[in-house]
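U11/U12 small nuclear ribonucleoprotein 35 kDa protein structure dump, as promised
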Amino acid sequence: MADWAPIAKEYDPLKAGSIDGTDEEPHDRAIWRAMLARYVPNKGVTGDPQLTLFVARLNLQTTEEKLKEVFSRYGDIRKIRLVRDLVTGFSKGYAFIEYKEERALLKAHRDANRLVIDQHEVFVDFELERTLKGWIPRRLGGGFGGKKESGQLRFGGRARPFRKPINLPNVKNDFYGEGSSEKRNWNRAGTGDWRTRDRDHERSRDKRWGERDRSWAWGDGERERDSREERSRGRDRKDRDR
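structure tokens r here:
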């Protein structure tokens, strides 16, 4: 644990799927997909990755002009790329902003995260596609995003850093008599009482059921006798009528 850090230094889908980075088996299919993926960063992307910010959770109505207006307050911007759908041309809700100086980049990274733009709280981080070794995007099962409802959360990024693992001592379970000798003796001593109580309970229950059965039987006999008397009275009435 000496080299443990809350932010991933190298992307590993298996670790990203673990809240503390210690999982050894994938817990969802997306992790398997990311582990089997052979992703190569987009060669068509230009610019200096060390000076580029990733801005996500944007309002779909936010434009490049609005982003330039907001992020230019931190320093001179060289380029803004708002990612859009190739077919519809609509915004996908994230963008890349390249600064001219590292000082401006660090200032924006520090102050612009969780900034509200067009009624949306945005997320700001460094670009990871070309700077983090082994990076796998979310569409291939990687990334540091995901929804709690789907059970595909990813950790190790700025939004969800790893939690420090807790090494619990080997605590013995007293339920199986692994605790102290006093507790073990107490359990043994109390065993007879519980067994006796269970037997008494079963006997009383059998007794109650027997009495209930007799009462039901008595009730059935009474009903049968009443029906016989009614039939006999009916026959007497018929005889008198004749």
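Helices lie at 13-16, 29-36, 64-71, 102-111, 181-241.
lmk if u need the other ones
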